[in-house]
Amino acid sequence: MEIVDRLGKVLFSDDAEILKLCVENAVASGIPLQGADLQGAKLWGAKLPGADLRGANLRGAVLLDAVLENADLQGADLRNADLQGAILESAYLRGADLRKADLRGANLRGANLRGANLQDANLRGANLQGAKLRGANLRGAVL
To answer: How does pLDDT run across 106-124, given as a tens digit for each residue?
Structure first.
């Protein structure tokens, strides 16, 4: 799919880039995305601070270097998601499913991960300072 301007100049030629812009605009406009089906979405570098993604399906999504500080991801499905370098500072991830997620180098400072499932997740180099991990499943996680 391509989007062209009135002179025929290609503005976007990638469905992934269009989806990223739509999600960013929805968040910037305060539109809640709870329960959204974003499975496998390519949202690398997306700016989603304070996003309401409660219960969203982000399974296998690419959120490399995404900004999700103060985002509400309670109960979200983030299995196999790529969150390398993502900023999740003070994010609410209570009960989120992060099994086999790649969180290498992610900033989870002050994040609420109570009851989250981080089984087999890669947290190498992640900043967990002040993160709340009570009841989180860290079995097999790489720390």
So the answer is: 999 999 999 999 999 999 9
Torsion angles phi and psi, residue 24, rounded to 5: -60, -45
- Which pTM value belongs to this model? 0.88
119 burial via Cβ count (<10 Å: 0-12, 13-18, 19+): middle
pLDDT on residue 31: 83
C-alpha to C-alpha distances, 38 to 34, 103, 121, nearest whole angstrom: 11, 18, 20
Q: Among the CATH numbers 3.30.1490.20, 2.160.20.80, 1.10.10.10, 3.30.365.10, which is that of 32-143?
A: 2.160.20.80
